[in-house]
Each structure stands twice: as structure tokens, then as C-alpha cells.
């Protein structure tokens, strides 16, 4: 899911636990894909970060995010614990949040890859649109 209010990208760590039940985040009621391994590039821990209806804690890691051939190394928030799930809880496997939340807020490092630091101007044109295919 893309969140234009969050400046940080959050992915679900392979060891993610939904705190209220003590079960893996891959099971109901959260039912997300727990694929990220934060131990490979662990930098620091974080606690109680609120994003897209979730309250999460975990590790900040370096990872690569790419748009076509343009790649950038940024901090990724890997959630090892979900304390609160206030976004479509108990709706079954949620395909829109299954891999995480892409934080594309105004201060997100994602946008830096589209700006020429010398001129401060955009290198690409971006168009966002609603997916009407479902």
C-alpha cells in the first residue's frame, strides 16, 4: 500500500508477532506477508511508530528501493511487532498491505531519487491514479 502521509516505508519482518494474540503476523487477524529479514542490514531499533492504522516496533535497516532502473538505498522500518491493527482488521488476507506500507509522504527519501540536487528540479514526471481494475 502507498501512504502519502507517512515518510517511512514499513515492511513486515519474518519474525513479526501480533502482540494482542502472540501469533505470527502472517495469521489472522493481521494476515500479512512476513518476508523481510532485518538482521542482514540492522542499524537501530525503534518503538511505537504509527503508520496507516498500525502501531509497530522493530528495526531500522538499510535496503534498496527501485523505480525501473533508478535505485536508491534508504532506511526501511521492519516491523517485528504489531501492537495495534486499526486498518481493515479481520477482513481476511489483505492483498493491499500484504508486503508493507510504502511511505511516500512529503519528507520521504523516496522522492529524492527524482530530484536533481544541483538544480532542485524533478528528473521525471510521476502520475498517480486510482486502480479501477477491481
Briefly summarize what is shown.
The chain has 134 residues and is an all-beta fold.
Write a concise keyword list for the protein shown above.
single chain; 134 residues; 7-stranded mixed beta sheet; two-stranded antiparallel sheet; 0% helix
Task: Write a structural description.
- By secondary structure, this protein is mainly beta.
- It has one domain (2-115): Cathepsin D, subunit A, domain 1 (Beta Barrel).
- 0% of the residues lie in helices and 46% in strands.
- It contains no helices and nine strands.
- The protein has strands spanning 2-3, 9-18, 23-24, 42-51, 54-67, 70-85, 100-103, 115-116, 121-122.
- Strands 1, 2, 3, 4, 5, 6 and 7 form a seven-stranded mixed β-sheet that branches.
- A hairpin with a 2-residue loop joins β4 (42-51) and β5 (54-67).
- The radius of gyration is 16 Å and the shape is globular.
- The two termini are 15 Å apart.
- The mean pLDDT is 79.
Amino acid at each position: 500500500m502507498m501512504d502519502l502521509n507517512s515518510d517511512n516505508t514499513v515492511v513486515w519482518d519474518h519474525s513479526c508477532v501480533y502482540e494482542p494474540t502472540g501469533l505470527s503476523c502472517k495469521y489472522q487477524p493481521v494476515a500479512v506477508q512476513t518476508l523481510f529479514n532485518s538482521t542482514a542490514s540492522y542499524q537501530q531499533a525503534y518503538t511505537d511508530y504509527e503508520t496507516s492504522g498500525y502501531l509497530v516496533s522493530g528495526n531500522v535497516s538499510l535496503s534498496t528501493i527501485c523505480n525501473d532502473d533508478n535505485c536508491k538505498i534508504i532506511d526501511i522500518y521492519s516491523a517485528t511487532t504489531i501492537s495495534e491493527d486499526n486498518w481493515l482488521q479481520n477482513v481476511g488476507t489483505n492483498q493491499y498491505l500484504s508486503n508493507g506500507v510504502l511511505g511516500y509522504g512529503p519528507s520521504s527519501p523516496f522522492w529524492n531519487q527524482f530530484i536533481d540536487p544541483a538544480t532542485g528540479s524533478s528528473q521525471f514526471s510521476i502520475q498517480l491514479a486510482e486502480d479501477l481494475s477491481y
